[in-house]
Design brief:
By secondary structure, the protein is an alpha+beta fold. It has 3 helices and 6 strands; from the N terminus they run H-H-E-E-E-E-E-E-H.
Length: 134
């Protein structure tokens, strides 16, 4: 069976080594924001990009240099796995080609509205906790 991606990363470090400088800087900034905002979050590589879990998948970071994600090169996408359930009245998140996911992309660190992005991260964490199986 053929692979659907021409590359394969087993660790975040391997991904970091692969990325162009601009995408790496944005990805690392977003990664630090996620790790600081979600105590005890687990980071795992899936589909060749980092996903962040507590009880279920909460969100991911998809750099444009990683094929298959349809993210423009030079950008890093923050995708919320159950984003369709988040309050998006300010239209911060975009609907993609997947029914449940909502995302936002950044090319530079200074484009990131940190307080607004954190509010979506906190919403996603609360949603994740509410879906926890007893």
């Amino acid at each position: 069976m053929p692979k659907f991606q021409p590359i394969s990363f087993r660790t975040t470090e391997a991904l970091f080594d692969y990325l162009p400088t601009q995408e790496l800087e944005v990805l690392l900034f977003l990664r630090d924001l996620i790790l600081e905002s979600i105590p005890g979050v687990q980071e795992k590589i899936a589909y060749n990009v980092p996903f962040y879990y507590k009880f279920r998948r909460i969100l991911y970071l998809w750099p444009g240099a990683v094929p298959w994600g349809k993210v423009p090169e030079g950008s890093v996408q923050v995708g919320f796995c159950d984003g369709y359930l988040l309050d998006n009245t300010v239209s911060f998140l975009e609907k993609g080609n997947r029914k449940q996911i909502r995302s936002v992309s950044f090319q530079k660190i200074n484009e990131i509205d940190v307080p607004l992005l954190k509010s979506y991260i906190f919403q996603a964490v609360a949603l994740d906790a509410s879906k926890r199986k007893p």
